[in-house]
Hints:
Layout: H1 4-9, H2 11-21, H3 27-63, H4 69-100, E1 121-126, H5 139-146, E2 149-150, H6 151-158, E3 164-165, H7 168-187, E4 191-192, E5 198-199, H8 201-207, E6 226-227, H9 232-236, E7 242-244, E8 250-259, E9 278-288, H10 293-310, E10 315-319, E11 331-339, E12 344-353, H11 357-362, E13 364-367, E14 373-375, E15 377-385, H12 386-397, E16 404-405, E17 419-420
Parallel strand pairs: 4-8, 7-13
Antiparallel strand pairs: 1-10, 2-3, 5-6, 8-9, 9-15, 10-11, 11-12, 12-15, 13-14, 16-17
Amino acid sequence: MHDVRVIRERLDELKAALRARGVDLDVDAIATLDAERRRLLTELEALRNERNVVSKEIGRLRQAGQDTSARQAEVRALGERIAMLEAKARDVEEQRDAALLRVPNIPHSSVPVGPDASANVVVRRWGEPRSFSFAPRGHVELCERLGLVDFARGARMSGSGFHVFTGVGARLERALIQFMLDLHTKQHGYTEVSPPFLCNSASMRGTGQLPKLAEDMYRVAEEDLYLIPTAEVPVTNFYREEIIPHPLPIKLTAYSPCFRREAGAAGRDTRGLIRVHQFDKVEMVKFVEPETSYDELESLVRDAEDVLQALEVPYRVVLLCTGDLSFAAAKCYDIEIWAPGQSAWLEVSSCSNFEDFQARRAGIRYRRKDGKTAFVHTLNGSGVALARLFVALLENGQQADGSVVLPAALRPYLDGMDRIEPPR
C-alpha cells in the first residue's frame, strides 16, 4: 500500500508508473476522496472548537445564574453535526484506503518499460542446453515410465491440476526440499522457519495477494482463512504489526506447499507438472534497511542461482519489464530453467524487491540508528519452486536407455542413488 502522500505529492509520477505498467486506474478519484476527507477534518476541527467555546460560555452563564437553554440547544446541534461529519469522514477514509489497496507498486527506475513479457531483458545465462543423440522425452512420459508420479489418481482425488508423487518420485521430492533448506541455512545464512499453511485475510492483504488475486486463491468456506499461494505470505507476516526487535538484515527461509487456483490459466499446460494447483516450494524472505535493499536483491538472486548451479540445470536470469511486474513488486528478476522435453524455458523463481509497499500494508517497522521507527523493505524469492525443477531434472538428466542421471549434489539425500532406472 502506498503512503497517502504519494497521492498528494507524487500524483503525476504515480500516473506515469501506472501507464508503464499498463494499468488503468482512476487515481484522480482517490485524490478527490483524500481531499474530501481533509476538508471534512478541517470542518470538524472548527466545529469542535466552536463547541468548546460555547460549552465554556454555558459554564460562565450558569455561574452568573443566567438561562443557558439556548446555548445548550446550540451545543446539541453542534454535537449532532460533528457526529454526522465524523461518520462521513470515516466512510470517505475507508473508501480512499480501499481504493489505495488496489494501486500497484511504483516500478524502480532501473526496470525496463514495456507492455508485456516480450520486453523483458535476459541479464545472464548459466550452463549450456544439452544436445541429445536421441529425441528427448517430455517429463510426463518419463514420470509414467519410471513410476514417479501418478497423474490419474491425483486428478481422481482432487481434480485437474493435482498429482501424486510415488516411490522414487516422492523420495526425490523430499530430497530436493531438504537439499534446498540445507543450502540456504548452512551456506547462505538464512534461518529456517516452519509456518502455517493457512493465513487470514489481513496477512493476505499485507503481502498484496488481496484484494487483487482473490480469484486465484483457495478460501476455507465460512472462515477467514486461505490456503497459502506461497510461503512468502506467512513468513513476511511473521513481523506483521511489529517493530522488528533484531538488527537488520533478517533472512528467513521456509518450505511450504503452495495452492493456486490460477483462474485465468485454463487450458494452458494442464497435463503434467508445469502448471498445477498444488506444488512445493522453498522460499527466501528478507527484511532489510531501505538503503541496502537493491544490493540485497542481487544477493537474493545469487542465492537462488546457487541452487540451480549445484543441480547442474541450465538457466537464465530475466529482468522483468513494467508490464510484466507483479502487483506488489518494484523490481523483479525471474530465473528460468531449460526443459528440453518442452523445448522451453520455465520460470522456477521470482526474486522481488517490494521496497516498503508490503511493510506499509502489514505494519512492519524497524528502529533506525537515530531511534526513530521506519518501514522496512521486504524482499522475497523462490529458492526454488519444486514442480518445474522436477521437470527440468528429469528432462535434462534423461538417457537413451530411459534412465535419468541425478546430479551429484542430490545423491547424499538419496542414499547415494545416482540414477533412476526404468522398472524391469
